[in-house]
Amino acid sequence: MEKNKQNVSVLFMLFSILFCVCLIAANVLETKQIAVGPVSLTGGLIVFPVSYIINDCVCEVWGYRKARLLIWTGFAMNFFFVALGAICDAIPGASYWTNDAGFHAVFGLAPRIALASFVAFLAGSFANAYVMSKMKIASKGKNFSARAILSTVAGESIDSLIFFPLALSGVVPAGELPLLMLWQVVLKTVYEIIVLPVTIRVVHALKKHEGEDVYDEGINYNVLRIFNI
Fold first, then answer.
1. What CA–CA distance (Å, rounded) separates 73 from 78?
2. Which residue, among 142, 133, 137, 153, has the nearest Cα to 60 in the 3D structure?
3. Nearest CA to 114 among 199, 175, 27?
4. Which residues cross the membrane (predicted)?
5. pTM score above 0.85
6. How far is the C-alpha of 154 from the C-alpha of 166, rounded, in Å?
7. Which of 10, 127, 119 lies closest to 62, judged by CA?
8. pLDDT tens for each residue of 126-173
9. 78 contact partners, CB below 8 Å, separation of at least 6
């Protein structure tokens, strides 16, 4: 019986793969600046909020412990991708290669930005999962919409509070940073609200298919207990 608790379902595995793809894609898309109306943002806004939606689904259906495994798996795969990109970027190009600048712009992530990204991702993702888990227990499984939105606000706020000062302090004027951080949180939360009807249907379908609806009562929230699932 104890051995079975260490197993994961096929659907959890597929969600984990999608989670990792979203994180890696966000790294690449972040290199392009996009305009949403009068607001300038990074292209990662297209896909990064999806990782929080997946986090919500996993935490709601399979519980915090599975979400913890998901977050660390995403971190490891993202780190692996960034490391490979950095290594390839550092290797001199062939004599006929003329696109060093373009390749470096996409894969030459500065150590400062990489560190800020990794720390912010871990803190924000775990905050999202923790709030989601605790609110589910407190509400006895009710008000999924409120839990999904509030956990996203918590996670995205912490992510932005860590990432932007660490990555852009001294690059972006100090007076602009708070506004930039606020827009990131607001737009990513709006993103979550817009797709919430789809998220709710996905969660209901997962619970029905998996026969699971985990409540994290009495568990250890230590983020380092990775394989305690």
1. 8
2. 133
3. 27
4. 7-29, 35-54, 75-97, 109-132, 144-168, 180-200
5. yes
6. 19
7. 10
8. 999 999 999 999 999 999 999 999 999 999 999 989 988 888 777 777
9. 20, 23, 24, 27, 118, 121
The listed range with the strongest mean pLDDT (28-37, 102-111, 179-188, 216-225) is 216-225
Residue 36: what are its φ and ψ, rounded to 5°? Answer: -110, 95
Q: In which band, very low, low, confident or very high, does the pLDDT at 29 lie, cut at 50, 70 and 90?
A: confident
CA 96: distance to chain centroid? Answer: 38
Q: Which residues are CB-neighbours of 42 under 8 A, at least 6 positions away?
A: 29, 30, 31, 32, 33, 34
In this structure, what token pair is assigned to residue 130? 């923790």
DSSP annotation of 91 reads S
| Mean pLDDT value of segment 187-216 | 93
The tokens describing 46, both together, are: 């297209």
In whole angstroms, what is the distance from residue 5 CA to residue 193 CA? 33
Q: What are the domain boundaries of the chain?
A: 10-210
Cβ atoms < 10 Å from Cβ of 223: 16
Q: Which helix (H) or strand (E) holds 35?
A: strand 33-36
